[in-house]
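If you are new to this repository, start here. Below is one unmodified record pulled from the training split, so you can see the exact layout before writing a loader.
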Amino acid sequence: MPVRLRIDCAYDGTSFSGWARQPGLATVEGALGVALATLTRDPDVRLTVAGRTDAGVHARGQVAHADVPVGSFTAAPGRSGRSPEDAFRSRLNAILARDLSARQPAVVVTRVSVAPPGFDARFSASWRRYRYRIADDAASRDPLARAHVVWREGHLDVAAMGVAAASLLGEHDFLSFCKPRAGATTVRTLLEASVTRSGGLVVVELRADAFCHSMVRAIVGALLPVGEGRRGPGWVRQVLDERHHGHMVIAPARGLTLEEVGYPPDDELGTRAAMTRARRDQPSSSWASKTNSPESASKTNSPESSSRSTTSSSASSSPSSSTSELNSE
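And here is the target side for that same chain:
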């Protein structure tokens, strides 16, 4: 009888071809999956993840689950006296460090816990939060952070970008900002949108029930001409309403980080998963649900504190992510 484990992890996506396992390519799922198979001695162990990040995209608060043999889990501490959760996490990280010995480990497991009944890392999630970081001033360009920040010439108007971002709040068909996939809906609910200056960087922060393929980077790509003064703030909403991705410009992957994933209380996990699996094709007439608020969802990480210098907006959403193709950014 297997035990379902929740696995929280972080990674530098620079050297990976995304999360999803691909033959002949280095991926996060591939690296973590090999470590899991080695530790459990089960080559068939599979990972399910909250957000399938694209090549070059990073994560600080990724969440996955895996069903592993009970014996492998309970035997992890050996004679150490540690808890199975702590020992399993430590041994996974040791395997990852060994397998990535040519460089510092690019994947780190931050926590392992026995998942509550009904938990599904993908379908139980209420929301995902991403941040995109831009250095628009030479003084804010740190070569040591080059892999996680996009450098751009010219000062960006964060106030105008914030107004434009706020115009996307709510439940919409985000086809204009998505790479559509067969059988997948592009209806999403954007719960929060802000553009701020923090630590000398421009930070675009978006929180939604889920994101379709390249959605965050496409929104950032639309916000940049607004920040540069080449477009007005209202243009971004016009692009959304066109429901056509002909204007879509994808911002570089390296500036994007999945910061955290939110889940409802334990007794609502199964219900949330069932609701999410029901595909949604059109925006609903109402989008108000406490399950998607950060106050009611348990977080994988607390948001990093920073001074905020401009617009930050939020919205409630309908209770269902309801997509056949969940978060894939």
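Two things worth knowing about this chain: The CA atoms of residues 120 and 148 lie 29 Å apart. Helices lie at 28-40, 70-74, 84-99, 158-166, 215-227, 234-242, 269-277.
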